[in-house]
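[User] I have long wanted to understand how a fold can be written as tokens. Those tokens are not coordinates but codes from a learned vocabulary of shapes. Could you go through the record with me and say what the backbone is doing? Thank you; the sequence and its tokens follow:
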Amino acid sequence: MDSNKGEIRIIAGEYRGRKIKVASRPGLRPTPNRVRETLFNWLGQWLEGLSCLDLFAGTGALGFEAASRGAARVVMVENDRAAFSALEAARERIGARAVEVVQGDALRYLGQSSERFDVVFLDPPFRQNALPAVLAKLEPRLAQGARVYIESDAPASSTLAPAERWVELKRARAGQVSYQLFEWRGDDQGGVSRHV
């Protein structure tokens, strides 16, 4: 987070330098600048034309960064009312037309939506052990070759099964946070991903 407590700054792209106010909520952890820079280096910096899902949006740091870098559509799902209101206000303030903010439970959203996404950001609350249930419901929402970023307190590799449908592309750690990028191979194990 920036030195100005309660704000994060978009790193690159159309909204570079714009500040997003962060709701003061227990357990809300903005993805640090260094981790965001690494993630978007992994993703190739620009996301033109891609559809992104920020499933536990929180501060919106990842979703707004994706929109700034050319994503055609970014859906942010947030259950907390105060955090949701802050996301809506930030979207209006910076004019992020590609962003849709949805208030609701992540699992419920995955069960109701039929949309498929090219990039998914998963940063659930660490102590809820939500990843296994989320990943099971997420698979039908993934486009072939989709990339899924997971931020957690420990590497999530054992959660992703069967292994032949998931390929770990990158892994790093920053302090207490483990972060990884996976590619979804789905049922087309012999296919070549358009993202590689």
The radius of gyration is 15 Å. Strands lie at 7-9, 19-21, 51-54, 73-78, 99-103, 117-122, 142-152, 166-174, 177-184. The first strand starts at residue 7 and ends at 9.
